[in-house]
Amino acid sequence: MSVVVQNSAGWFLDACSFIDQGHSSCMRYSKDGKQSGFKCCFKRQCFRANKSYCSAHASAVTDGGMADVLPNSDKLPKSVTFSTFQKRKRKQREPNQGEVYSRAFHEKSRNVILKGTQSLVEAARSLGHLSGQTDTVEEPLPAPECGFAALCEMAKELPLVEEEGLCSQPLVAGDGSTSHVDLFSRLTENSSDQALVVTLMGQEYVIPQNSAFLLSDFVRIQPLVQYGRNFDLIVIDPPWENKSVKRSRRYSSLPSTQLKRLPIPLLSSPNCLVVTWVTNRQSHLQFVCDELYPHWGVEVVAQWFWVKVTTSGEYVFPLDSPHKKPYEVLVLGRCADKSTSPLETSQVEDQRVIVSVPSALHSQKPSLSDVLRPYIGAEAKCLELFARNLQPGWTSWGNEVLKFQHTSYFTMMQTGDQGDAEAPENSANNHPQKKTID
User: Fold this and answer.
1) Is residue 108 part of a domain?
2) Is residue 137 part of a domain?
3) How far is CA 130 from CA 123, 138, 160, 225, 277, in A?
4) Contact 352, 302 (CB under 8 A)
5) Which of 16, 32, 393, 398 is the most exposed place for a label (fewest CB within 10 A)?
């Protein structure tokens, strides 16, 4: 379980432990067909957000001040000095319409986020979490070189497989080989109950158990539609356009209007829950609620907040910062289908808070699998669009769908074919015991 704390405000998640659970039992096939067992732990330095990126100047101009930046603390961080506040004041200007909407949305949501975060952080601390102590090693973040987007562009020149029944393929053949795998025009399935360490395109990746994926962009999304599976949960993490992405060139962004091309009505089951990650740009939130969901026949039922905190429980950015916020919004909606009875699931509550230490890897979101299970049922079929990693039991699509499955992101320990080995020093087993409380 990734859920450490659950209360009326929401959830506190241990995102890294969830990844470990899906890769705790791995198998690798050697060239001679022999099998060897592994335990894979996601590298802890990817979740080492030890310090808040607090802008003292931004906090000084807010009513709440630094007390709102640091839950359960009335002290300024050591890195903040009052000389920081003596910056030259910029010339005041009238806010544009987008800024007006953003401020109004923040003021409306601020109290929910503040109280929810404090409640969840306090509960997590009582269980031994968010102490500020980490067992990470001082190593640079992994940066495997594999241009998936460029490969998807090259794959457009290849003919699509159109024969009926050939839209999917097994990850591993009977002899343990993966050389036959066509990643770009068929869904690749790991139907094993174990994660598999395989070589794809000359690189090693860890593929979770009972997962399926398609590496493609919009031009070759048709195999996903032909897969013949309707999903009870669809999570979407769009590559939203913004200035930061353009400057960094981390990934190719997508105009909002292009999202309407996603074949959600063809992929969704009746009463499907659709969840979309939205940046703090107000135009994106309005687009999802007012245009995108109605276009798909999806009714908005709730808005949640993912709040990012450090390993000490501080907001990663000031709550009232006029620029970057320490939270992102999730828009939850249901596919409207009045002809069928709704699933036996819980009603989705509005204004809930999800708190976790974020990954230092750009755009890696925490899994929502455990959080959303009560709203979709235990046997629900789940799909992630624009995925950058895989999840056990899920189907995933995107032009970077294997990005964070590269073995360089994992600490791997050989266990033998059957037995279990002791966890490495930097493994999840060295964290405090986790409990879920109501």
Assistant:
1) no
2) no
3) 10, 19, 49, 42, 25
4) yes
5) 32
Distance in angstroms (rounded) separating the CA atoms of residues 405 and 438? 33
**412: part of which helix (H) or strand (E)?**
strand 410-414
Q: How do residues 313-356 score in pLDDT, each as one tens digit?
A: 999 999 998 878 999 999 999 997 645 555 556 789 999 999 99
For residue range 171-202, list pLDDT tens digits in order: 988 767 777 788 888 999 999 999 999 988 88
The pLDDT assigned to 202 comes to: 84
pLDDT range class, residue 127, cuts 50, 70, 90? very high
Domain harbouring 236, CATH code: 3.40.50.150
Work out whether strand 327-335 and strand 268-278 pair parallel, antiparallel, or are unpaired: antiparallel
- Given the DSSP bridges, would you call strands 382-385 and 394-398 parallel, antiparallel or unpaired? parallel
3 state SS for 395-408? EEEECCCCHHHEHH
The DSSP annotation for 181-207 comes to: --TTTSEEEE-SSSEEEEEETTEEEEE
Q: Report the number of distinct structural domains present in the chain.
A: 1
Contacts 24+ apart (CB under 8 A), 197-201: 197/26, 197/27, 197/28, 197/38, 197/40, 197/407, 197/412, 198/28, 198/29, 198/171, 198/172, 200/402, 201/146, 201/151
Sheet (strand 382-385) strand order: 3-7, 10-13, 353-356, 298-308, 327-335, 268-278, 231-236, 382-385, 394-398, 211-215, 187-190, 168-170
Angstrom distance (rounded) from CA 37 to CA 206:
12
215-253: burial string, b at 16+ Cβ within 10 Å, e else: bbbeebbbbbebbeeebbbbbbbbbbbeeebeeeeebeb
Q: Which residue has the tokens 């909002």?
A: 256
Domain of residue 172 covers 146-306+324-407
Sign of CA dihedral 246, 250, 253, 259: negative
pLDDT exceeds 50 at position 78: no
List phi, psi (to 5°) of 11.
Answer: -140, 145
Report yes or no: 343 and 2 within 8 Å, Cβ to Cβ.
no
Distance (Å) of CA 44 to CA 18, 41, 390, 426, 428? 12, 8, 18, 7, 8
Question: Is residue 348, in this structure, part of any structural domain at all?
Answer: yes
| φ/ψ of residue 344, rounded to 5 | -80, 80
Residue 58 included in any domain: no
